[in-house]
């Protein structure tokens, strides 16, 4: 972009110097000639300015952000255009960004990191209350004034950069190091997305690095979605367990485990201890250190006043205090245990495991889950790896399994085969009725009630309607085809694993067709993830039989059976 330094936008905003650049706009220090104040001017990048829809969103979100006023939010003053230059005028904060501070110092003192996080959480609470979600919380967008106070900037700009329904992760704006799992997946981002990003930023302030930093852009996005970050205290020994607790709940993948609001997060940050343990040995060790220092000063005073006998008494006193304190510290350390990861375990196994670690198991509810089988643990609180005192109650939520299942297509199957497929889908066989049907061979399933593809409650009974073939009075229909009898027949079992490259949306439609003396018919149909095995299919062979396996409508394998 051609330099705009020295220009005056709309005869009002004088551009003084370039101070930074982001994915959507270049930042300048400027002067408002009307009000006589220094301002920050964000000028949209030329490639984005050519998109009229983006420009409209840019202005709309800027106006929404301008309606949020808070002491820890950099105010939005104005938005406008001058020729092909589209800009936002914002409060100019004298100081530096948190990114610059971290680049210079690596990590921050605990009390300062918690204060900055707390002020940012307060800003987010105010914005969320006004219906504004930031979507790009990161150190670059947190400004630190000369007095150290934090101000969040660029509210609304991140939202303008994402059109509704966008799912292309290559178009994700800004740094991927602080992005929430839902945004990494291309899903809609709500207030809890900002909480995750603030948790990642706090992790960086405490440890000198973001939660995930190894690998390229896509690898880091994958880690945000699937990997569990380390506890901050694992990288910085001495951090209080309360801090691990807060960061762990900010960075939870499951929204139900994440803080529900920025206001809730702010209250937990306020309760965190502001001092680290000396040498990583806990607050008792820090207490011992401070009091031993004062005891040594007292010893000098006592020697001067009382001589050798006073010195001996003082040494005994100090030794006693030190011994008691060491015992208390050791006892306190022994009582701290890391919470294990019990999500996915059966209730009985989790209870036994927790009790062996002197933790208490308590079920607090259950809810449906498409991913965790019924009876297994769906979530836990406190989260895994957090250090807690022995006897702490670990609250767990059990999975009820999928609340609904899809009725599979079982037409043109034998009754036995259809019932096996229904059971594999989590359903039960209902009544078996007969009806004339010219399109389905006699003895095979013609239809089901509920019909195929219907979503029903797990365990629902599905009635089968078996074909009697065409009505005797209906000429022109195919000749009756009796199902193969038991004489001379044998059974083969067909198994199949869905290829890794199948299923553009994460699942593939798998079907099995049989071609034999009775013609062609479909004996199985269902949806499966790549790498998943379909339920074993029994095939009765009375003559030369060919089985075709179709994945998303294409034949991927053929198998032939001889009698």
Indicate the topology.
Blueprint: E1 8-9, E2 13-21, E3 25-32, E4 37-44, H1 46-49, H2 52-66, E5 76-82, E6 85-91, E7 95-97, H3 98-105, H4 110-129, E8 142-145, E9 150-152, H5 157-160, H6 181-184, H7 191-207, H8 217-226, H9 232-235, H10 241-250, H11 262-271, H12 283-306, H13 308-335, E10 336-338, H14 347-356, E11 360-367, E12 377-381, E13 387-389, E14 393-399, E15 404-406, H15 415-424, E16 428-435, E17 445-449, E18 455-457, E19 461-467, E20 490-494, E21 508-516, E22 519-528, E23 537-541, E24 545-551, E25 554-561
Parallel strand pairs: 11-14, 16-19
Antiparallel strand pairs: 1-2, 2-3, 3-4, 4-6, 5-6, 7-8, 8-9, 10-13, 12-14, 15-18, 17-19, 20-23, 21-22, 21-24, 24-25
Helix pairs in contact: 4-7, 4-11, 7-10, 10-11, 12-13
